[in-house]
Write a structure and sequence with these properties.
517 residues, mainly beta, two-stranded antiparallel sheet, 40% strand
């Protein structure tokens, strides 16, 4: 098979080349695709092919990565001072990769800057930083990258240039710092405020900021009004500003003054609630509510504790508690069973069957050993129970078998064959070595060891060369499990290949390998 593939690829390459050459005009040649270009048709009288690139006959080719310079130009190689390039030595000079004009010098890369070309009569070079001759250098420092500045109009603060008369506010935990005027501003740990303001540092309650003590007061990073009090962060809440005439503070939680606070507990999360609201904890009125370990209930309610059956809750006087499940006084508890989940039910109208609650006029369909269905409640007037499956009275039950999963069926429309439902005019083809079987009509089909073939087809048994199957003897032949065309021969399995069908007019068999002639 490998030699056949190689032979086919060789033929395709020849055909492909002839096809490409055929697209070029008479007198033209084809320039093959190369590393430098995609090729194409070209005239050998006027053009030349360079590795996929077509140039004129008087031209040369400059490979990728190189630079084309003018005839009067020179090339400045890349260096520490610059990336180089083409330059005219009449007007320009090359300094270690930088191209400068006559009279200019090179300022080498240094700790203050990247350097470059500069005119000594107008500029000065200081460790890579080029400044005008009347400027001074602010070296790179702790606060900034430095730069050029004019003494008298600006001042240098450890790498930061500020205006004359300004000071520098260093970076801090509260802000990023900047230049400022100490006449109008003050520096507070990197944060600038006006002179008539105070600074509230960042705290647990807020991010702080500038404030006027006439309008605000500072409380652990939170700004409150002068007529407000501060409720610190606690176990119950995040605190905040509040008016003592309206609210009270309970361990970080704010409640109205006419309410009480229900602390968080095992039954609820605690918190504030209005007088008429009942929920999972909160503030409550002793007239209308009761606090049970974080849970707010009605004044006359009791607590149903969390148990192994449920999460509990508020228990009205008309109900009772059963291990965390609340049922009404006229209900009974149906325990969890194999048929369903637990629940409360009325004994006057319902019955409990192994976890399933059914109506008193219903029966229960239990799960069977073959697990055909999940069972459940049913009316014997409308259904029959078969192994957990509910069927109608006019239906029969086909048990699960080797052929299928069974189910309910009408005897006038189907017949049951070992779990498989077939129509009355069909027969059953049992599962065999050739296939999984199934239903079939013997007027049009035949059964062969689990496989169903058409009546005009024959069966090719599984052999050493193939898995067999159905075939038409007018168009095909069976050879040891392989179905070939009538004009084909079989190539037996050998050391070189797995064998197969082949036509002797275009192929030959070589020790299990089919090769084209």
């Amino acid at each position: 098979m490998e030699s056949k593939k190689y032979f086919l690829i060789l033929i395709l390459k020849v055909l492909f080349k002839n096809c490409i050459d055929a697209q070029c005009l008479t007198g033209q040649d084809f320039c093959s695709k190369g590393i430098e270009g995609n090729g194409g048709c070209y005239s050998k009288s006027f053009e030349i092919c360079y590795d996929g690139v077509i140039c004129r006959s008087y031209e040369k080719y400059c490979k990728k990565g190189n630079l084309v310079c003018g005839i009067n130009e020179k090339y400045c190689s890349k260096g520490e001072a610059g990336n180089g390039g083409c330059y005219s030595e009449i007007n320009e000079i090359c300094y270690d990769g930088a191209i400068c004009r006559p009279g200019e010098k090179i300022c080498s890369n240094g700790s203050f800057g990247k350097g470059g070309c500069f005119l000594p009569s107008a500029y000065i070079c200081n460790k890579g930083l080029i400044c005008r001759s009347h400027q001074k250098v602010c070296p790179k420092g702790f606060y900034g990258n430095g730069g050029c500045f004019i003494e008298g109009t600006a001042i240098c603060y450890d790498g930061v240039i500020c205006r004359s008369g300004e000071k520098y506010c260093p970076n801090g935990t509260s802000g990023n710092g900047s230049c400022y005027s100490d006449i109008t501003q003050s520096c507070n740990d990197g944060f600038l405020c006006r002179q008539n303001q105070k600074y509230c540092p960042k705290g647990k309650a807020g991010n702080g900021g500038c404030y006027s003590d006439i309008i605000n007061n500072c409380n652990d990073g939170l700004l409150c009004s002068p007529n407000e009090s501060y409720c610190p962060i606690g176990l119950a809440g995040k605190g905040g500003c509040y008016s003592s005439s309206i609210h009270k503070c309970y361990d970080g939680f704010l409640c109205r003054i006419n309410l009480k606070y229900c602390p968080k507990g095992s039954a609820g999360n605690g918190g504030c609630y209005s007088e008429r609201a009942y929920g999972n904890g909160g503030c409550y009125s002793t007239v209308s509510g009761t606090c049970y370990d974080g849970l707010i209930c009605g004044y006359f309610d009791k607590l149903c504790p969390k148990g192994k059956l449920g999460n509990g809750g508020c228990l009205p006087s008309t109900s009772y508690c059963n291990e965390g499940i609340i049922c009404r006084s006229n209900e009974i508890y149906c325990a969890n069973g194999s048929l369903g989940l637990e629940g409360c039910y009325s004994k006057s109208s319902s019955i409990c069957y192994d976890g399933t609650i059914c109506s008193s006029i219903q029966a229960v369909c239990l799960k069977g050993s073959r697990i055909s269905g999940n069972g459940g409640c049913y009316s014997e007037i409308f259904h029959n129970c078969f192994e957990g499956l509910l069927c109608r009275p006019n239906e029969k039950y086909c048990p699960k078998g080797l052929a299928g999963n069974g189910g309910c069926y009408s005897s006038s429309s189907f017949i049951c064959y070992d779990g498989l439902l077939c129509r009355p005019n069909e027969k059953y083809c049992s599962k065999g070595t050739a296939g999984n079987g199934g239903c079939y009509n013997d007027l049009f089909n035949k059964c062969h060891v689990g496989i169903i073939c058409k009546s005009n087809e024959k069966f090719c048994s599984k052999g050493t060369l193939g898995n067999g199957g159905c075939y038409n003897e007018f168009f095909n032949l069976c050879h040891d499990g392989v179905i070939c065309r009538s004009n084909e021969k079989i190539c037996p399995k050998g050391t070189s290949g797995s064998g197969g069908c082949f036509s002797s007019s275009i192929s030959q068999c070589n020790n299990g390998l089919v090769i084209s002639i």
